[in-house]
Every structure is written in structure tokens, then in C-alpha cells.
Specification:
The chain is an all-alpha fold. The chain has one domain (2-296). Helices cover 76% and strands 0% of the residues. The chain contains 14 helices and no strands. The protein has helices at residues 2-15, 27-38, 44-48, 52-59, 62-72, 79-92, 98-110, 114-124, 136-182, 189-217, 220-230, 237-251, 254-257, 264-296. The longest helix is centred in the middle third of the chain and has 47 residues, at 136-182. The two termini are 14 Å apart.
Length: 297
């Protein structure tokens, strides 16, 4: 079942190009506001402990999901469980089609309409840019980083935790990302540090597995050198993303296909296309490896 759910979700994620925002997507903020409004009802000891509300934020939503999965177990010849797994995993995947977003961006970028590329991207995916840009090189770097990080955190890492612990593992990882992104419950330096450390722990193995998949899908020798030099980096989420970026850069074959004498816009376009190809090949590597694991186990 795991292989079928993963393959189905990846195919739908790739070909579903329409709007994916759901009416319930803002429930994270509502749930945070409820916890903040009701914290005065907690005993003094719990209320004063800085990790109480973050733990409630992460664990309480998992209870009804776990109950649903328990109730559905074995019913309708397993079809109900299969449907729940599919819906929950799809919910954890990104709200924007990365491949389609790149296509729309490149159509404008290749015509020299850099501002149009910025405005369209900002409209479709507001989280891509944190600020407006006068320097198009910085804008393009920010877009490429968004593509890579979103592909990792909302696809590859989500799949990793789904494969290990099912929908609850994927949903917990997504909730942790939302907890850090909203930040309203991380009101002390200690709680923020704990959340960041937990994220780093959850991403330590997936980021290295994705980097290794980059090596298999691209320039193996160059990428493996990067992995070997940084495999035991400090436990930090930002450091893990740096390893991911360096591995992707080493795996891409742009320098062999594009001359150094061409202008920046053409080279940036070629690099983004190569990044898209690398991510697609990495999807294939993950599917093949998962199929082999299932056959062996």
C-alpha cells in the first residue's frame, strides 16, 4: 500500500496544475489563536513552561487523525485506509505545482520580462519572495532556493516520514514546520531553540538521503565529494539546507552544457531548467529505491 500511495501522490502532485489552496489551510493560525486564548485555563505549572503550547499544537491534532485511521483499519477490504492515507499525504504536499511554477516563471524570464516573472510568482505563491528585488540576480537566486527547499521539505522529507511512520509521521513533520513558520507559540528563546533543534533532527537523515539521490541522478563524483566533506556537519536545520544546496549545485551538469560566455539571463534560465530536471530524476530514484525496498523486505 505504501508504494501505491507514494506513487499515486507523486503523479497527482506532478500533473495537478490547478489551484490547490484549500479552505481549511488557515487552520494552523486558528489553532494557534485558540491555544493562546485558552492558555489561562491551564494550571500554573503548565502555563509557565514554555513548551506546553507548542507540544499541544503538535500533538493534539494528531489524535483525531489517529482515531480515524484506527476506525478505518480493515474496513472495506482496506480501501478506506488507503483513501485516508492518500488524502493525508496529498494534504502534506505543497500547495503549488513546482514544475508548473517553473514553467510560468521561465516563460517570462526568457522573454526578458523579469518584473512580470516576479509579479506572477508573487501572485501564485506569495511565500517565494520575502521582499521586492531591484537586483534580478538576487530574485532568481531566491526563486531557485524556494524551488529546492520546498521540494525537499514538502515532498522528499514528507515522503520519508510517511514511509517510516505513515500519515501521522508526515503530518507531525508538517505541523512542526508550521509551528516554526507562524512563531506565535514560540514566545521564548528556549522554545524556539527546541523547535529548531527538533526540525534539524527530523531533517538530518532525509537531507543526506536526498543529497545522495542527487548524486545518483546527476554528477555522482562531484556530489559525493560534497556529501563526504559535510556528512557530519553540526545538527542545524540551516546547515542541512546548505548541504542540500551544495549537493544540488554539484549534481547539476549546467557548466558542461552552457558556455561561460553567455549572458546572465540565459545562464540562469539553463541552471533553473537543470535544477528542475535534477528534481524530476531524483523523484524517479526515490520511487525505484522504495520499490526495491518493498521487494526485498
Amino acid at each position: 500500500m505504501t508504494f501505491f500511495v507514494v506513487l499515486s501522490c507523486l503523479l497527482l502532485n506532478h500533473y495537478w496544475r490547478k489551484e490547490r489552496l484549500l479552505p481549511v489551510d488557515n487552520w494552523f493560525e486558528h489553532w494557534q489563536q485558540i491555544l493562546l486564548a485558552q492558555q489561562h485555563r491551564l494550571p500554573d505549572g503548565l502555563r509557565q513552561w514554555p513548551l506546553t503550547l507548542p507540544i499541544f499544537f503538535l500533538l493534539i491534532p494528531l489524535i483525531p487523525v489517529a482515531l480515524l485511521l484506527l476506525i478505518a483499519e480493515g474496513r472495506l477490504m482496506g480501501l478506506l485506509t488507503l483513501g485516508l492515507h492518500f488524502l493525508l499525504l496529498m494534504y502534506c504536499l505543497p500547495r503549488v505545482n513546482i514544475d508548473f511554477l517553473i514553467d510560468e516563471y521561465l516563460q517570462r524570464w526568457d522573454r526578458g520580462n523579469f518584473e512580470a516573472a516576479y509579479l506572477h510568482t508573487e501572485q501564485v505563491a506569495p511565500s517565494v519572495f520575502n521582499e521586492s528585488f531591484d537586483d534580478y540576480a538576487c530574485m532568481h537566486a531566491s526563486f531557485s532556493t524556494f524551488v529546492l527547499v520546498t521540494s525537499f521539505r514538502r515532498i522528499f522529507a514528507v515522503l520519508f516520514w510517511y514511509i517510516l511512520f505513515g500519515p501521522l509521521g508526515a503530518l507531525f513533520y508538517l505541523l512542526l514546520q508550521q509551528l516554526i513558520a507562524t512563531g506565535g507559540l514560540l514566545q521564548t528563546g528556549r522554545s524556539d531553540a527546541v523547535a529548531e533543534r527538533l526540525l534539524a533532527i527530523l531533517e538530518w537523515v532525509p537531507v543526506r538521503m536526498v543529497a545522495l539521490a542527487f548524486a545518483l541522478a546527476g554528477d555522482f563524483v562531484a556530489t559525493f565529494k560534497v556529501i563526504k566533506s559535510r556528512i557530519f556537519d553540526q545538527l542545524d536545520a540551516d546547515t542541512g539546507l546548505e548541504l542540500l544546496k551544495e549537493s544540488a549545485s554539484a549534481a547539476m551538469l549546467t557548466s558542461e552544457r552552457v558556455g561561460k560566455d553567455i549572458d546572465f539571463a540565459a545562464r540562469a534560465s539553463a541552471e533553473l531548467k537543470e535544477l528542475r530536471g535534477l528534481l524530476m530524476r531524483t523523484h524517479a530514484v526515490w520511487v525505484v529505491v522504495l520499490a526495491l525496498i518493498i521487494l526485498v523486505v
